[in-house]
Amino acid sequence: MTQGILVINSGSSSVKFALFSDDGLSEPKPLFKGQIEGLGTDPCFQVKDSNGRKIDARDEWPRGSTLNHTGALRYILSWLEDCASNVKIQAAGHRIVHGGLDYEHAVRIDKHVLEDLEGLIPLAPLHQPHNLAAIRALAEVAPKMPQVACFDTAFHRTQPRVAQLFPLPRALAEAGVRRYGFHGLSYEYIAHCLPDVLPDADKVVVAHLGSGASMCALLDGKSIESSMGFTAVDGLPMGTRCGGIDPGVILHLVQNLGYDAKAIEKLMYKESGLLGVSGVSNDMRDLETSDNPHAAEAVDLFVYHIGKYLGMLTSALQGIDALVFTAGIGENSPIIRERVCQRAAWLGIRLDREANRKGGPCISTPDSPVSAWVIPTNEELMIALHVRNVLQLG
Ligand code: ADP
């Protein structure tokens, strides 16, 4: 019987999962990756094997039905029992968006941890409740299975205090209003790869460019600054999130344009970014192929802000040895990588166009003073590694 680790990333309308086999020695190996989407409206199960090939899976739910997190996890576990019957799932790891200041590392979940994490719901109301719902659901479906919480904030707890503080009255910082940073599991995975890929690079900026997008400064593999702060809406413009805007805009919306908190939340999280500026799509592929000038402007704005944050993070690092692109856009869009590297010529990045077209891994010329790279992220593997370490499996 093969030992397995189940990885879960649970949102409001979907539960994503990955199953890894784990011999406790070599890197855990992916077996299946899938999701149930549309929990509240027409659930749909999809799964791929370790080669990324789609597996035919019958949809079990009639149109118009709904599923809660417990139903979704029950289904996923029973599908795995049937289709991965030679794998004994020994533990599960969850992606948890917020670990506050106290959780600097992944941790085994018990009653007290769950209570602590519930206390952080006000800091991440759009994600944390759904992350925690999956923990409770799994405890119900598989009560004996050990569960580990892996945090998107934990990797950033190495940032210096000045990078974590807002210039607000101290009492607010003590009440938790401070910069936490997100996408930590992705940055941690990149940091985990750096000693093999770039053993001599101390000062590295990583651009995680997906539908959520952020950037992080790594000094000797540790986070010292990031573009996301108190919430995952700060920093770069994203698919539908606005990124950093003057807080005075919010006051204006409330005082003069009749917005309330719910309307502002919708505006900032769902209607802004690439979608809001282009009026066309939140998907970079659509924007790259559109003739609409507003689509071109949305792409210009995205590239401009990446360049701005690159300068800011290079200042935090006091220099830069390498720039790494990752996530959906970073891994798949030679156009965006080229435009970002062109704007970063002043930093000493010289793009190798052919290497960039082919997707790297190295996309800078051999004589480039600062190198540029494409490294596919793997947050699920990072979670599986945390589960193994926390539970000392193997
Ligand atoms: P997330 O995990 O934040 O949902 P991903 O990292 O999967 O997002 O990135 C998704 C985004 O990647 C898509 O919205 C799309 O804009 C972009 N993307 C994927 N493939 C390509 C491509 N070939 N060219 C440009 N953009 C792409």
**How does the major sheet shape up?**
7 strands, mixed
Briefly note the structural class of the backbone: alpha/beta
- Percentage of helical residues? 25-40%
Which class of the largest domain in CATH terms? Alpha Beta
Q: Please, how many helices? A: 15
Task: Give the N-terminus to C-terminus distance in angstroms.
Answer: 14 Å
CATH level 3 topology of the largest domain: Nucleotidyltransferase, domain 5
Mean pLDDT: 96
Strand content: 15-25%
Structural commentary:
This protein is α/β, with parallel strands linked by helices and 394 residues long. It folds into 2 domains: 2-151, 2-Layer Sandwich (Nucleotidyltransferase, domain 5); 199-379, ATPase, nucleotide binding domain (Nucleotidyltransferase, domain 5, 2-Layer Sandwich). It is built from 15 helices and 12 strands. The protein has helices at residues 69-83, 111-119, 128-141, 161-164, 170-174, 184-197, 247-256, 261-270, 273-278, 284-289, 293-317, 327-332, 334-343, 353-358, 379-391, and strands at residues 2-10, 15-21, 29-37, 44-49, 87-96, 107-108, 147-151, 203-209, 213-219, 222-226, 322-326, 371-374. Strands 4-3-2-1-5-7-6 form a 7-stranded mixed sheet, with helices on both faces. It has a 5-stranded mixed sheet with strand order 10-9-8-11-12, sandwiched between helices. A hairpin with a 4-residue loop joins strand 1 and strand 2 (15-21). The protein is globular, with a radius of gyration of 21 Å. The mean pLDDT is 96. The protein binds adenosine-5'-diphosphate.
